[in-house]
Amino acid sequence: MLVSISLPFSFSLALYDCPLLHVDEGSKERGYGHAIVAGVERYPLKITKNMGKKRVAKRSKVKPFIKIVNYNHMMPTRYGLELESLKSAVTLDSFKEPSQREEAKKAIKKLFEERYNSGKNKWFFTKLRF
Asked: What's the whole-model pTM score?
């Protein structure tokens, strides 16, 4: 289950109720409880009826992010989204090398765009207004 959260950053995050990976006790690198989160950094643009297929495809792109976030900086909300396939796409090892991180982002982008184009969970792909 995915829960949308807001942070003091310029974009919104998406947090798993059962996170992609969570470390409650902390680790050697990070001595605090944290979770790997995935979310939308740049949202798809508005589409109208009179736009062509090429323009619709270009405006339907999603820019995702993956990030390690301290539990103290998260604020859960009531919204939920289930994407079980994300858990296999991102691991703690994804953050060790930039190339692995880029591969994880590409996998997340593909999943997010499939979800957006299917028309499910439209609230997830709209900018948070706060």
From this structure: 0.73
